[in-house]
Amino acid sequence: MFRLKPGVGHERRKPMSAKSRAARICAVVLAVVLTAGACGDSDDTSSTGGGGAEVSTATPKAGGKLIMGVEAEVDGFDPTQNRMDVTGLTYASTVYDALGAFGKDGKVHPYLAESITPNADYSEWTIKLRPNIKFSNGDPLVSDDVVAGWNAHLKSPLTAPAITGYLLSVTKVDDLTALFKMAGPWVPFPIYLTGQLGFVFSHKMLENPKDAPRNPIGTGPFILKEWVPGNHMIATKNPNYWQEGLPYLDSVELRPIVETQSRLSSLRAGTIDLMHSSDVQTIRDLRNVGSIASITDEKVAGEQEEHFIMLNTAKAPLDDVRVRRALAYATDRERRTDTIDFGISPDSTGPFGNTGSAFHGDTGYPDFDLAKAKALIEEYKTEKGVDSVSFELGTTNTGRNLQDMSLMQSMWKDAGVNVTIKQVQQSEYILNALNGAYDAYDWRQFGEPDPDADFVWWSSLTASPIGQLALNFARNKDPQIDADLIKGRTSASEADRKAAYQEIAKRFGTDLVPYIWLNQTIWQIAFKPKVKGITNWTLPNGDAGVDHTIGGGFLLSHVGVN
Amino acid sequence: MRAVVGKVLYLIPVLFAVTALSFMLLKLLPGDPAVNILGASATPEAVETLHRQLGLDKPLIEQYGTFVNNALHGDLGRSYQNNQPTVEALRQRLPVTLELLLMSQFLALVLAVPIAIRAATRPDGLLDRISTGVSFGFLALPPYIVGVVLVLLFAVQFHIFPATGYTPLTQNPFENVRSLILPSVTLALAEIATYLRLLRADMITTLQEDFIMMARAKGMSPRRILWRHALRPSSFSLVTVAGLNFGRLIGGTFIVEILFALPGIGELTVQSIFSTDYLVVQGTVLLVAVGYVLVNFLVDLLYVIIDPRVRHAASSG
Asked: Which residues, in sequence order, are CB contacts of A560 under 8 Å at separation 6+?
């Protein structure tokens, strides 16, 4: 913040020449501008003592419009064709309902489904829909829609990888019931009913796949009225919505505001009512703004998104675990968090973060120890007969990422590792990761509601050699991890599942080190105090809904403005 | 008329060259639209299938030929990302950018012209020195800094204008103007400085001409001399630069539209480049090229109106 120094301007006055008069006028104008900018929220802050506005638990009133600023534009509303990241899920949840939703207990509860029931060994799941629900086009919701939708997912190049091989078939039992048959026990399968795969859409959308992304037909709380890509999406209240009294709002408008600071300014200026962000600078800036309330997913149940350096374990010198371990020892996470993330981001020593997740445990991940790092690098150099250890460290094209990776570069240099930073455009970045055409990449991933969703990222089955597309980007192959992934998927015992995933985290942390953990990503939802229902909403069965789903998404059906 | 036809014919090779070059350059961009669409879970089979669907498996020349052929029939293809027809996307976004450009040019000229005229009448006077200092300041400030300060001041602090967003003129004319004031001022400030300096210098030269002295000798009022007799011959450079500036301003809109979340051509271009949405980028490049050539064509026509010598030369030639 820019502030005027006290005492400036109190020197003895001299008669002013035209030149100095002009200079003074300019100075005064500039001072007014900068002071006003610097003191933008001074009165707001005082009202809350610098802690931000309180999150209200009042029940929302019916009516009104809410404008939300989102971090990106979506590519459409077809769950089988369009990518649904945080923003995509937010858009989609206005027009669709998912079969299941997370409760405050961290478990999946039936939502559009009336019941979600496994057979004795969890190799079959029966999903019964709620009766008398209509799509936005007036058609009744029947099991044919669920069957058609899931069969389309099984053929979709976008969504099939998560279920192919394990979900064998989806068939109709009766008008409201569908049967999901698996290749074997799949205990955490219901988590897939809460997101993109779980959204139920009319089978009629599949008849015209070209128009489907722009013409959603769902049972959701709102009906799409207008979507101008890059500008706004407006959805109006579904008058025939199946949950009585919902949605509270008459309409919602979602506006993509890509630039983080612009989104924040829009919220502070009242141009929008609510926004999401994973930018730590925004989190820091909002801490002292009393006119804005916010929540984060820091402590929410589930698996947090992690920020880490992903190492290509199939490529020298990172194919040697001593080098990878040396990098872990050479990384001063605390210094990095203080320098880059304003001390805000929580530390991370494993794939499940260090806060909130039931699967977190002692991962044995190395703490900063430069001497050990140096020793390991020397050992490697002696054995391999090389003079130096060097590789390329990639990141995407932003100044902040470059700053971050420059710090990593200097820390690793202290251990005797020479790193060249390479900034790469986003789409090439993903392609390189898929092809294994990288050494080390700055990466954010693994923010899933349950570790089972990480199966494809960690399994040896998806770790193809360099040059072939592989979803296991680190190309880390380990029979123990494979066995634990199967155990986590098939075991009905929560304790066994927990043990299996904790063992995976430990294998990552101590024996294999394919990832250099940096910090846990925090997602924040910030809003004007008039926005209600962000944290206190109930599921159709009366149970409490999760405060804040991982990754900054939530159900706009339960939000209102008072 | 012959000159007009000549200019129009000149457009054809220019547009051909621009589209061919941009098409080839876009193909050099790293990344793959199919991977962008499929995301991190792309499998080799899925990528191959999508390449086939999008026509990306065909030779480059064939892809360009298809693009030109379709463009001549008014079809610029569809976005790989959201399947929206490119023509529809351009139609939705063109009014935003046009409005922004026109409003910023209007603001720049409305402020720069009277100040320049006034400053030229008293070179080195108080107004001249203030305007020189301030205009150099504006020139030195990049738009993204100006924009941020304006938003902090007029949106966050005083809540006078919205921080981001755009309201269409047809929806609410008042809100439309409000939504474009800050972006227009952001773009206009640097232009004010350029126009002011340029017109001031030309005016000072013109005011030393014999015909001005003659007008003064005849007892004509200073206002009439400045606005009726000195301004027109002094504005050739201004008009030329205003035309050339069109291209530079489009570059400025790329930043300003992102900063103010305006759904214009600049924002569309940037997002399409990041997502390697070739056909949309190609469409925006084509549109900008046509616009640039047309504006400069209009500037040439304006010379005929401003300068009788050009008019007479054209009619006698």
From this structure: A60, A61, A62, A63, A64, A66, A247, A248, A249, A531, A532, A533
CA–CA distances in Å: residue A543 to residues A94, A103, A158, A301: 21, 7, 33, 16
Residue pointed to by tokens 């962008």: B36
- Length of chain A measured in residues: 562
Checking DSSP bridges between strand A108-110 and strand A100-102, what pairing results, if any?
A: antiparallel
Residue B157, chain A, CB below 8 Å: the answer is yes
Model confidence pLDDT, tens digit, residues A343-354: 999 999 999 887
Is A259 close to B258, i.e. CB distance below 8 A?
Answer: yes
* pLDDT greater at residue B80 or residue B127: B127
Optimal mutation site among A2, A210, A398, A431, interface B, most CBs of chain B within 10 A: A431
CB-CB under 8 Å, A469 with B42: yes
Q: What is the DSSP string of A260-283?
A: HHHHHHHHHHTS-SEEEE--HHHH
Q: How far is B109 from chain A (nearest CA, A)?
A: 22
User: Does the interface ipTM go beyond 0.95?
Assistant: no
> pLDDT tens, B247-299?
778 878 888 999 999 999 998 998 888 777 888 888 998 888 888 878 887 88
End-to-end CA distance of chain B: 12
Q: Does residue A309 have a pLDDT over 90?
A: yes
Is pTM beyond 0.90? Reply is no
Beta bridge partners of A544: A538
Alpha helices in A5-85 (DSSP H): 18-38, 42-48
* Interchain contact, B259 vs A433, CB within 8 Å: no
Determine, for residues B44 and A468 on separate chains, whether the beta-carbon distance falls below 8 Å: yes
